[in-house]
Amino acid sequence: MNLNGNPTRHLAGKTVVITGGGRGIGAAAAHTLAHAGATVAVTARNEEQVVDVASQTKGTGVTVSAVCPGYVDTPLLNESIGRIMQRTGQPWETAMSAILEDSDQPRLIRAEEVADAILPLLLRDADRTSGETIVIDGNDAQGGP
User: Fold this and answer.
1) Is the Cβ–Cβ distance between 136 and 114 less than 8 Å?
2) What does the pLDDT look like over 25-62, one tens digit per residue?
3) Could you tell me if 8 and 37 are in contact, meaning their C-beta atoms sit under 8 angstroms apart?
4) In angstroms, rounded to a whole number, what is the distance separating the alpha carbons of residues 14 and 33?
5) Residue 4: exposure state from Cβ atoms within 10 A (0-12, 13-18, ≥19)
6) Is the whole-model pTM more than 0.70?
7) How far apart are CA 58 and CA 53, in angstroms?
8) Cα 100 → chain centroid
9) Contact predicate 97/103, CB 8 Å
10) CA-CA distance, 10 to 7, in Å (whole number)?
Protein backbone atom coordinates (compact mmCIF):
# COMPACT_ATOMS: atom_id res chain seq x y z
CA MET A 1 0.00 0.00 0.00
CA ASN A 2 1.32 3.44 -0.88
CA LEU A 3 1.02 5.69 2.14
CA ASN A 4 2.17 8.80 0.19
CA GLY A 5 5.18 10.11 2.03
CA ASN A 6 5.92 9.50 5.68
CA PRO A 7 3.95 6.42 6.72
CA THR A 8 4.28 7.20 10.43
CA ARG A 9 1.76 10.04 10.23
CA HIS A 10 -1.14 7.88 9.09
CA LEU A 11 -1.75 5.97 12.31
CA ALA A 12 -0.16 8.31 14.85
CA GLY A 13 -2.29 8.39 17.97
CA LYS A 14 -4.04 5.13 17.11
CA THR A 15 -3.82 2.00 19.24
CA VAL A 16 -4.17 -1.44 17.73
CA VAL A 17 -4.55 -4.77 19.51
CA ILE A 18 -3.54 -7.78 17.42
CA THR A 19 -4.38 -11.26 18.59
CA GLY A 20 -2.31 -14.04 17.08
CA GLY A 21 0.42 -11.49 16.40
CA GLY A 22 3.39 -13.77 16.97
CA ARG A 23 3.72 -15.06 13.43
CA GLY A 24 2.17 -15.06 9.98
CA ILE A 25 -0.50 -12.49 9.19
CA GLY A 26 -0.63 -11.18 12.77
CA ALA A 27 3.13 -10.52 12.92
CA ALA A 28 3.08 -8.88 9.50
CA ALA A 29 0.16 -6.68 10.56
CA ALA A 30 1.94 -5.71 13.79
CA HIS A 31 5.08 -4.76 11.88
CA THR A 32 3.23 -2.80 9.19
CA LEU A 33 0.94 -0.95 11.59
CA ALA A 34 3.82 -0.14 13.95
CA HIS A 35 5.79 1.40 11.11
CA ALA A 36 2.68 3.37 10.14
CA GLY A 37 2.76 5.00 13.57
CA ALA A 38 0.26 2.96 15.59
CA THR A 39 0.84 1.82 19.13
CA VAL A 40 0.55 -1.94 18.78
CA ALA A 41 -0.35 -4.46 21.48
CA VAL A 42 0.36 -8.02 20.40
CA THR A 43 -0.84 -11.32 21.81
CA ALA A 44 0.63 -14.64 20.75
CA ARG A 45 0.79 -18.25 21.81
CA ASN A 46 4.18 -17.95 23.47
CA GLU A 47 6.67 -15.44 24.81
CA GLU A 48 9.31 -16.12 22.14
CA GLN A 49 6.95 -15.07 19.34
CA VAL A 50 6.12 -11.78 21.04
CA VAL A 51 9.76 -11.06 21.87
CA ASP A 52 10.57 -11.55 18.18
CA VAL A 53 7.88 -9.05 17.12
CA ALA A 54 9.09 -6.59 19.78
CA SER A 55 12.66 -6.84 18.50
CA GLN A 56 11.50 -6.08 14.94
CA THR A 57 9.90 -2.81 16.04
CA LYS A 58 12.62 -1.76 18.52
CA GLY A 59 13.81 1.79 18.01
CA THR A 60 10.71 2.87 16.09
CA GLY A 61 9.09 4.54 19.09
CA VAL A 62 6.49 1.77 19.14
CA THR A 63 5.81 -0.13 22.34
CA VAL A 64 5.16 -3.84 22.13
CA SER A 65 4.33 -5.88 25.19
CA ALA A 66 2.85 -9.33 25.50
CA VAL A 67 -0.02 -10.72 27.48
CA CYS A 68 0.31 -14.50 27.56
CA PRO A 69 -2.71 -16.14 29.13
CA GLY A 70 -2.94 -19.81 29.80
CA TYR A 71 -6.21 -21.60 29.21
CA VAL A 72 -9.05 -19.08 29.43
CA ASP A 73 -12.63 -19.96 30.30
CA THR A 74 -14.26 -19.10 26.97
CA PRO A 75 -16.86 -20.69 24.71
CA LEU A 76 -14.05 -21.79 22.38
CA LEU A 77 -12.33 -23.73 25.17
CA ASN A 78 -15.61 -25.33 26.17
CA GLU A 79 -16.19 -26.39 22.56
CA SER A 80 -12.71 -27.93 22.49
CA ILE A 81 -13.39 -29.82 25.71
CA GLY A 82 -16.68 -31.03 24.21
CA ARG A 83 -14.76 -32.47 21.24
CA ILE A 84 -12.32 -34.19 23.59
CA MET A 85 -15.27 -35.67 25.49
CA GLN A 86 -16.79 -37.00 22.25
CA ARG A 87 -13.53 -38.58 21.09
CA THR A 88 -12.50 -40.07 24.43
CA GLY A 89 -15.75 -40.63 26.29
CA GLN A 90 -14.28 -38.77 29.27
CA PRO A 91 -16.52 -36.63 31.46
CA TRP A 92 -15.99 -32.85 31.37
CA GLU A 93 -14.12 -32.78 34.69
CA THR A 94 -11.60 -35.41 33.56
CA ALA A 95 -10.93 -33.70 30.23
CA MET A 96 -10.51 -30.32 31.94
CA SER A 97 -8.22 -31.76 34.63
CA ALA A 98 -6.00 -33.30 31.94
CA ILE A 99 -5.66 -29.95 30.17
CA LEU A 100 -4.81 -28.09 33.36
CA GLU A 101 -2.35 -30.75 34.53
CA ASP A 102 -0.60 -30.74 31.15
CA SER A 103 -0.17 -26.96 31.34
CA ASP A 104 0.75 -26.78 35.07
CA GLN A 105 -2.11 -24.32 35.36
CA PRO A 106 -4.06 -24.62 38.64
CA ARG A 107 -7.32 -23.18 37.27
CA LEU A 108 -8.92 -21.64 34.22
CA ILE A 109 -8.28 -17.95 33.70
CA ARG A 110 -11.30 -15.66 33.45
CA ALA A 111 -11.48 -13.49 30.32
CA GLU A 112 -11.81 -10.44 32.57
CA GLU A 113 -8.41 -11.23 34.11
CA VAL A 114 -6.84 -11.04 30.66
CA ALA A 115 -8.64 -7.78 29.91
CA ASP A 116 -7.46 -6.32 33.23
CA ALA A 117 -3.87 -7.12 32.28
CA ILE A 118 -4.22 -5.53 28.82
CA LEU A 119 -5.72 -2.23 29.98
CA PRO A 120 -2.57 -0.72 31.56
CA LEU A 121 -0.63 -1.44 28.37
CA LEU A 122 -2.96 0.85 26.42
CA LEU A 123 -3.10 3.83 28.75
CA ARG A 124 -1.35 7.11 27.98
CA ASP A 125 1.70 6.39 30.15
CA ALA A 126 2.16 2.93 28.65
CA ASP A 127 4.82 4.25 26.29
CA ARG A 128 7.22 3.80 29.21
CA THR A 129 6.64 0.06 29.09
CA SER A 130 7.90 -2.00 26.17
CA GLY A 131 9.05 -5.54 25.70
CA GLU A 132 7.27 -6.78 28.81
CA THR A 133 5.68 -10.20 29.00
CA ILE A 134 2.72 -10.56 31.35
CA VAL A 135 1.98 -14.20 32.08
CA ILE A 136 -1.51 -14.98 33.34
CA ASP A 137 -1.52 -18.59 34.40
CA GLY A 138 -3.73 -18.76 37.48
CA ASN A 139 -0.83 -18.66 39.92
CA ASP A 140 -0.45 -15.91 42.48
CA ALA A 141 2.48 -13.47 42.53
CA GLN A 142 4.50 -15.85 44.69
CA GLY A 143 4.36 -18.53 42.00
CA GLY A 144 1.86 -20.88 43.60
CA PRO A 145 -1.81 -21.70 43.13
Assistant:
1) yes
2) 888 888 788 878 887 777 777 778 777 777 776 666 66
3) yes
4) 10
5) exposed
6) no
7) 9
8) 19
9) no
10) 6
